[in-house]
């Protein structure tokens, strides 16, 4: 069982509010990822990090930002939430230096912006 | 760029019957392939993965998948489904980029299990 945590699990918030979705892992993984998943749809990579102070944008454009100040922590921030940000956000992590390694996922945060 | 297609959006199967979920991928090199399962309200759990070697891969919960290069497929199978197998299943292909690794997911197949 992977040790990767996300809080909050559910969040309902009004338009214009600033929100931060937390993701932390206790496995010492160097790589971390954020995916966005609309109901019944596939996952789209929106951010990733290969280590401390390393962040990159993913395949799907997102108005969110991320930071990686500590290995175990990879928070995602929306400065001004909008209804179009309503979705599920999944965090993942992996460990490895060469080739493909397995990504382990957290339980997700379901965000509803009113 | 890599892509993954899961042709079946929904599949309904009776408990005890066999299950096969289709996955077709497009990738220019040797693919790294994964199947994940997502139960309602949960994150994704890895069922199995294929990196190289034996093309028939065994996973958890009694699942297996077979890599067929000639058909660009990686179909997931289970001989006898249980009610707890009702979930959404995602196939994914991994690509090794210069700066690291990325996964591309299919659209998912939702499995409903009838008593």
Largest sheet of chain B: 6 strands, mixed
Label the structural class of chain B: mainly beta
Span of the ends, CA to CA of chain B = 41 Å
Let me know the average pLDDT of chain A: 90
Distance between the ends of chain A: 35 Å
One letter per element, helices H and strands E, the order of chain B comes to EEEEEEEEEEEE
Gross morphology of chain A = globular
Which spans of chain A of ≥5 residues are poorly predicted at pLDDT below 50?
Answer: none
| Overall strand count of chain A | 11
SS summary, helix count of chain A? 0
Poorly predicted ranges of chain B: none
- By oligomeric state, this entry counts as heterodimer
Give the overall pLDDT of chain B as a whole number.
90
Compute the gyration radius of chain B: what is it? 14 Å
Question: What portion of residues of chain A belong to β-strands?
Answer: over 45%
Following the backbone from N to C, one meets helices and strands of chain A in this order, namely EEEEEEEEEEE
Figure out the total of helices of chain B: 0
Short description:
The complex is a heterodimer of chains A (about 110) and B (about 120). Chain A is mostly beta strands and about 110 residues long. In chain A, about 0% of the residues lie in helices and about 50% in strands.
Report on the structure:
The complex is a heterodimer of chains A (114) and B (115). With 114 residues, chain A is mostly beta strands. Helix content of chain A is 0%, strand content 48%. In chain A, the strands form 2 sheets. In chain A, strands 2, 4, 5, 6, 9, 10 and 11 form a 7-stranded mixed β-sheet that branches. A 4-stranded antiparallel β-sheet of chain A has the order 1-3-8-7, with no helix packed on it. In chain A, strand 5 (43-51) and strand 6 form a beta hairpin. Chain A is globular. With 115 residues, chain B is mainly β. In chain B, 0% of the residues lie in helices and 57% in strands. Chain B contains no helices and 12 strands. Chain B has strands spanning 3-5, 10-14, 19-21, 24-26, 32-38, 44-50, 56-58, 64-68, 73-78, 87-97, 100-105, 109-114. In chain B, strands 2, 5, 6, 10, 11 and 12 form a 6-stranded mixed β-sheet that branches. Chain B has a 4-stranded antiparallel β-sheet with strand order 3-9-8-7, with no helix packed on it. Chain B has a two-stranded antiparallel ribbon with strand order 1-4.
